[in-house]
């Protein structure tokens, strides 16, 4: 029996490293059993081993394995570490959410469509695809910078309103501080103007007129003391001018100047008129879900004045008018 006990003890000791990799707590539970087995079958001619202080306190040895909740919280904290992929990508995700992605996507598609529209105008014998690609790339870059500035400024100025209407936005949700948001929009405004002024290789008149006009109207729309968004008429005019006239005619002229085509043909004016009506729909619809917060902070939008249901009906009628 003593030999068998010693052999069993040696086998158990040999398997400790493997067992530790699966269940450390189970190994610690087995250590007292190992010791008692050795003492039980020890030779009576040998003096008993002196009592030793256990490596771990009994409470630690007998502690239960971590619960699923503890394990998940530990995993969550480790995944949000600054060195983890999630920790590295989180600032980029905050900036992406701060930029209002649906407006970024809309701006990119709008700029792309206008450049293709300008390239298809009658009378162009040869289309310089390289020049068109350069003009398109610069227009998208500047449009994205100014888009971040305009939508970010609106969030900076409407923090308390957004806590009611859009609590998921980064500043309202506490994911982005107002001071950092101001840095982001300031850098976006500067880069949207300085980069084309310094590096754009062609005539920059149409591009600069578009980005500067959008910046000025975006500032007047959101920032005090103007806060044009407080009144339905001035808010609608800002959106109609930017979305209907400035962007369409400005970026069309920007593309046409590179291609050598007519800057303001009738087809561009008709497109501008169509999107002016579409801009009116945007101006009406954007306030429909924000009635509660706008009313509390005295932003007298048309939805607050006459009711969201009526505004929704007017916008639906205008939208159906655009598409026949």
What does this structure look like?
The protein is mostly helical and 324 residues long. Helices cover 73% and strands 0% of the residues. The chain is built from 16 helices and no strands. The chain has helices at residues 2-14, 16-22, 24-40, 58-61, 68-79, 85-98, 101-119, 129-157, 159-165, 178-199, 205-222, 232-259, 266-285, 291-296, 302-306, 308-322. Helix 10 packs antiparallel against helix 11, helix 12 (232-259) runs antiparallel to helix 13 and helix 13 (266-285) packs antiparallel against helix 16. The longest helix is centred in the middle third of the chain and has 29 residues, at 129-157. The N and C termini lie far apart (98 Å).
Principal-axis shape equals globular
Strand coverage percent:
under 5%
Query: What is the N-to-C succession of helices and strands?
Result: HHHHHHHHHHHHHHHH
Poorly predicted ranges: 7-79
- Mean pLDDT over the full residue set: 80
Number of strands: 0
Biggest sheet overview:
none
Which structural class is indicated by helix and strand composition? mainly alpha
What distance separates the N and C termini?
98 Å
């Amino acid at each position: 029996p003593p030999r068998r006990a010693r052999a069993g003890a040696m086998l158990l000791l040999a398997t400790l490293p493997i067992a530790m990799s699966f269940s450390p707590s189970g190994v610690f539970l087995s250590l007292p059993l190992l010791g008692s087995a050795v003492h039980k079958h020890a030779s009576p001619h040998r003096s008993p081993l002196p009592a030793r202080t256990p490596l771990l306190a009994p409470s630690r040895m007998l502690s239960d394995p971590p619960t699923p909740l503890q394990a998940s919280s530990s995993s969550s904290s480790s995944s949000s570490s600054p060195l983890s992929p999630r920790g590295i990508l989180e600032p980029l995700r905050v900036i992406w959410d701060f930029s209002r992605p649906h407006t970024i996507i809309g701006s990119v598609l709008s700029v792309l469509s206008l450049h293709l529209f300008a390239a298809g105008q009658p009378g162009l014998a040869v289309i310089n695809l390289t020049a068109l690609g350069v003009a398109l790339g610069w227009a998208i870059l500047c449009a994205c910078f100014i888009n971040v500035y305009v939508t970010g400024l609106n969030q900076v100025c409407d923090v308390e309103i957004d806590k009611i209407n859009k609590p998921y936005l980064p500043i309202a949700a506490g994911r982005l501080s107002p001071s950092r948001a101001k840095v982001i929009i300031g850098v976006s405004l500067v880069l949207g103007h300085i980069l084309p002024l310094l590096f754009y290789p062609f005539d920059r008149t149409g591009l600069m007129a578009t980005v500067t006009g959008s910046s000025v109207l975006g500032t007047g729309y959101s920032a005090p003391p103007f806060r044009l968004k407080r009144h339905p008429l001035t808010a609608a005019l800002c959106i109609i001018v930017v979305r209907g006239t400035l962007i369409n005619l400005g970026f069309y002229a920007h593309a046409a100047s590179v291609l050598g085509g007519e800057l303001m043909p009738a087809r561009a004016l008709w497109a501008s008129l169509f999107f002016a009506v579409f801009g009116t729909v945007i101006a009406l619809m954007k306030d429909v879900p924000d009635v509660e917060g706008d009313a509390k902070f005295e932003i007298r939008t048309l939805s607050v004045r006459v009711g969201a249901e009526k505004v929704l009906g007017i916008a639906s009628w205008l939208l159906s008018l655009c598409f026949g």
